[in-house]
Amino acid sequence: MVGIIFYKCLFDTILYHAADLLEEVTNLSEVQEVYTLAYQDLEIKNDLISELKYDSAYILEPELTFTALLDSIYKGKFQFFYRPDTYAVV
Length: 90
Fold this sequence. Notes:
The chain is mainly alpha-helical. The protein has helices at 2-22, 28-40, 42-56, 66-74. It has one domain (2-86): N6 adenine-specific DNA methyltransferase, N-terminal domain (Ferritin, Up-down Bundle). The chain is built from 4 helices and no strands.
């Protein structure tokens, strides 16, 4: 249980930091959406990754944040398996 809470705290922090860099939003689902859209835009993605790595030393792709995982559970689409293509090399 502690691991889940730690994971959530780490990646909520990343989401809010990304939102501060991109737009001023406070709702966690809006923050997730802003992060996902920015990560899909190649111009913004590289700068965003550089900034997040500089400030936090870690990043995670949008579909692997706690918010995205929880959303996929609610939608019944959660798959618990390792997909090497979804992890970013930092």
